[in-house]
């Protein structure tokens, strides 16, 4: 296989956009075209105003600014990009199935299959097809079968190259990955992809494995990370009843070099588009091989996470004299973590849903998530009518108008700016007693109590 000159990527989302931008930035000799069927998204990627990119990710604007128009292009012309490319990344969404067999657990691969069929229909020359999306182990087999049976006598080589970036730190993660993982069977195809990454990633960080190990490793990495969060969150509840402090426990435990300090921050529960979806998928796969003990083991990570979100909402209700009906609760943060505009599976959605069942009045402020998205998230639950969501929830464009006359503040996302607010002034604007429910352990108990707040934080 010759050297790669043109890359196409199907899917201009949170993974395809940043990943291809960095590949283009670091490989000026390769033309990279990112395509998507979502016209509005592509238009936003092409906006002259780099603050209007469809994804908020620190440092992304600079990378796009450097490469776009030089060797990085965003387009809706999927067929043309496929036709011209030597290497095609598939980076489309693989959400949890919402219907049929495996509903609520299995990954929905319809978008992946559509990509494969489109590639097969359009390709007139040999292609390396790279799985960038997170996929169930053995998906490459299905892809290969579709490509080989509907193609035009073209040779397709499939590689697995899962992405490990985290949102909010995507550019740094892409520039300095712990590892790049490439699974495949064809040595020349593997080498072609190794060469793309070797433009900036040290050789010893590029791991090559067989296809199935690569596909499975991605699910396992996310399962292990989420498991650490559920582990510390389970201990947070024990801390609350015993007088231990979960941050102190996490520090003492994490200082053991065998355990390590990262990913031990207790919280209102993990969110994001990946952890829950990928663990559910792992559970589904294990069950499909009749490995029920394995499946049950990993399922507990999700059960504990759901419990953590519920118990945070219940704690708010209990502390506020067992009723939040008509009370104004200010939500600081809606995104699933700081430094992203992504709210998929955010804990805030589920905490809000619980409080809305009790007829609370919620006013949300998030620095990056727009009001339409907040309402879309609530409407998608189907718990109540869109009209009721709009009656009970309002969205503020600045923090003070969310906090004025609030009975309570709930911190759902760890945005840095929340720490720098004038909490003395905020208290003047709130009803008394002024409650703060800190789902991120962002503010300090000593300071808040000195100001006269009733302060509750996870794991204290
Ligand atoms: P996303 O929803 O942000 O982006 C996917 C894009 O693909 C959408 O814009 C959609 O319009 C487009 N698309 C779907 N089918 C298409 C088709 N047939 N033709 C053209 N475009 C199509 O999703 P994402 O967050 O970028 O995730 C993509 C994959 O990467 C998923 O499998 C996910 O599990 C995985 N992943 C995500 C993250 C993350 O942090 N978000 C990290 C690692 C891996
Ligand atoms: C995750 C993986 O980290 C990444 O490698 C993979 O490619 C995609 O999935 P992401 O979901 O973007 O990335 O963010 P991450 O930083 O992992 O956080 C996920 C959730 O866990 C967030 O809601 C975060 O607030 C929460 N979390 C994380 C905790 O509550 N405590 C922690 O210590 C760490």
TrEMBL record:
EC number, UniProt record: 1.1.1.22
Molecular function via GO: NAD binding; UDP-glucose 6-dehydrogenase activity
EC top class, as a word: oxidoreductase
GO biological process: glycosaminoglycan biosynthetic process; UDP-glucuronate biosynthetic process
Protein residues bound to substrate: 163-167, 218-222, 258, 265-271, 336-337, 440
Annotated signal peptide: none
Biological function: Catalyzes the conversion of UDP-glucose into UDP-glucuronate, one of the precursors of teichuronic acid.
Name under which the protein is recorded: UDP-glucose 6-dehydrogenase
Organism: Sphingobacterium allocomposti
Lineage: Bacteria, Pseudomonadati, Bacteroidota, Sphingobacteriia, Sphingobacteriales
């Amino acid at each position: 296989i010759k050297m790669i000159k043109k890359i196409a990527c199907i899917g201009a989302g949170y993974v395809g956009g940043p990943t291809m931008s960095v590949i283009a930035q670091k490989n000026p000799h390769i033309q990279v075209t990112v395509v998507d069927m979502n016209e509005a998204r592509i238009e936003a990627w092409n906006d002259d105003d780099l603050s209007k990119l469809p994804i908020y990710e620190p440092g992304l604007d600079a990378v796009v600014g450097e490469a776009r128009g030089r060797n990085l292009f965003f387009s809706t012309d999927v067929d043309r990009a496929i036709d011209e490319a030597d290497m095609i990344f598939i980076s489309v969404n693989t959400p949890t199935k919402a219907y049929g067999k495996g509903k609520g657990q299995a990954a929905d691969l319809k978008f992946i299959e559509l990509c494969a069929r489109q590639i097969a229909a359009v390709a007139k020359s040999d292609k390396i097809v790279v799985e960038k999306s997170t996929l169930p182990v053995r998906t490459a087999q299905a892809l290969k079968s579709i490509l080989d049976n509907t193609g035009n006598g073209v040779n397709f080589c499939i590689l697995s190259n899962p992405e490990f970036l985290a949102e909010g730190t995507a550019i740094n993660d892409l520039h300095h990955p712990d590892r790049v993982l490439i699974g495949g069977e064809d040595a020349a195809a593997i080498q072609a992809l190794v060469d793309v990454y070797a433009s900036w990633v040290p050789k010893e960080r590029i791991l090559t494995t067989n296809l199935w190990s690569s596909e499975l490793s991605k699910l396992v990495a996310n399962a292990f990370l989420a498991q650490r969060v559920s582990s510390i969150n389970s201990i947070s509840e024990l801390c609350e009843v015993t007088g231990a402090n979960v941050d102190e426990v996490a520090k003492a435990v994490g200082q053991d070099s065998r355990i390590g300090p990262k990913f031990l921050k207790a919280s209102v529960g993990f969110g994001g588009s990946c952890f829950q979806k990928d663990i559910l998928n792992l559970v589904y796969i294990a069950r499909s091989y009749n490995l029920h003990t394995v499946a049950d083991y990993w399922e507990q990570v999700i059960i504990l996470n759901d419990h953590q979100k519920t118990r945070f909402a219940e704690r708010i209700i209990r502390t506020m004299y067992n009723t939040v009906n008509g009370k104004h609760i200010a939500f600081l943060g809606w995104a699933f973590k700081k430094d992203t505009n992504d709210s998929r599976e955010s804990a805030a959605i589920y905490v809000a849903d619980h409080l809305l069942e009790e007829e609370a009045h919620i006013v949300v402020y998030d620095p990056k998530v727009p009001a339409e998205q907040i309402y879309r998230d609530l409407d998608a639950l189907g718990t109540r009518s869109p009209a009721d969501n709009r009656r009970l929830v309002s969205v503020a464009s600045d923090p003070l108008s969310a906090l004025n006359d609030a009975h309570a503040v709930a911190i759902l996302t760890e945005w840095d700016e929340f720490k720098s607010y004038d909490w003395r002034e905020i208290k003047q604007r709130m009803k008394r007693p002024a409650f703060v429910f800190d789902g991120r352990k962002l503010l300090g108990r000593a300071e808040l109590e000195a100001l006269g707040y009733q302060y509750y934080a996870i794991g204290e």
